[in-house]
Here is the input.
Amino acid sequence: MGRYVVQRLLLAVLSVWIVTIIVFTLIRVVVPKVYGSAVDIVAVDIAHNDPVRAQQLREEFGLSGIECPGWMPGMPNGVCNAVYRYGEWVGGIFRLDLGASVQTGQPVKGEMKRRLPVSLELGTIGLCAGLIISLPLGVAAAIWQDRWPDYILRTIFIMLASVPGFWIAILIITLGSIWFNWAPPLNIKFPYLQDDPVAHAKVMMLPAFLVGLTPSAGLMRLVRTQMLEVMRQDYVRTARAKGLNERTVIIRHALRNALVPVVTVVGLSLPALIAGTAIFESIFTLPGMGQYLVGSVQQMDYTVIQSTNLVFAVLIVMANLLVDISYPFFDPRIRY
Here is the structure.
C-alpha cells in the first residue's frame, strides 16, 4: 500500500508538471501570437501613443524578450525567453509566490486565499448533495425494479440529465423574481463565515444544490445498474439464505460492493464539477475561483490564468489519488 501511494504521488507530481508546461505554452506563447499580449489589452492607448511606456510595461509584466545565454548557443531568442519565463514562474511556485495580476497589480496568492474556500465549499457541498440524492434513490430503483417507483425515478433523472444545471438556475431566479418577488441572497461577506454563518449557508445552499443536481442523474442510474448486478451474485443469495434481514443484505453486502464503480465515476467527474462551478459562481455572483478565472480570461490576465489552472490541476490530481486509495475500504478484496 505504501509503495503504491508513493508511486501515485510521483505520478501526480509528473501530471502537474506537464499541466504547467501546457498552460504556460498556450498562455504565454501561442495566445499572444494570435490575440496579442496582455499589454495590448491593458494599455492599448499607451502602446499606440507612447511606445517607450509600452515597452516599460512589457518589461514590468515579464513580456519582453531576453538575449540567449552563452550556454544555449543557436537557440532563437523567443525560445530562450519562453524557457526563462517558465523557469521564473516555476521558481515562484516553489517559493509560494504566484505573481501579481496584470490587471490590478494585486498578488494572486492573496486573492486566491479569499476565493478558494468559496469554490471548495461550493464543489464539496454540490458533490455531497449529488451523492445524497443519487445513492438512496438508485438503491430504491434497484429494489423496486420494473415497478412504478423505478419508472418514475428513472424518468425524472433522465430529464435531469438532459437539462443543464445552469438553465435550471436561471429559470429559478427568473421565475422567482417575476412570480413571487423573490431572489436568492447573493452576498458573501469576508472574513469568510465569520460574521453570520446562517446567512452564509442561505447564500450557498441553492447554488451548491444545483451544482450537484445534474451529476446526480448519471450517478443514480449507475447505482441502480450496479445494485442490480450485485444483487444477482451468489454471495448475496447466500446472505439471504443465512437468514439475514433484507436491510443488512442491501447495505452491508450489496451496496458496499456496488460503490466501487460509483467512486471511480465520482473521481472522473471532478474536473467537470470544478469547471461547472465557474458557471454557477457567475450566475449567483459568488466570488470564487471560477469567476476569477473567467474574468482573467476575458482580460488576458495570464498570471491569474496560469495560477488558477495550476490550483485546479492540483485539486483534481489529489482528488483522484484519494479515490484510488479509497477502493479497499469499499471492497476488501482489492489489494495494491
User: Anything to note?
Assistant: Residues 16-94 form one domain. Residues 246-283 form the longest helix (38 residues). The chain has 14 helices and no strands. The radius of gyration is 25 Å.
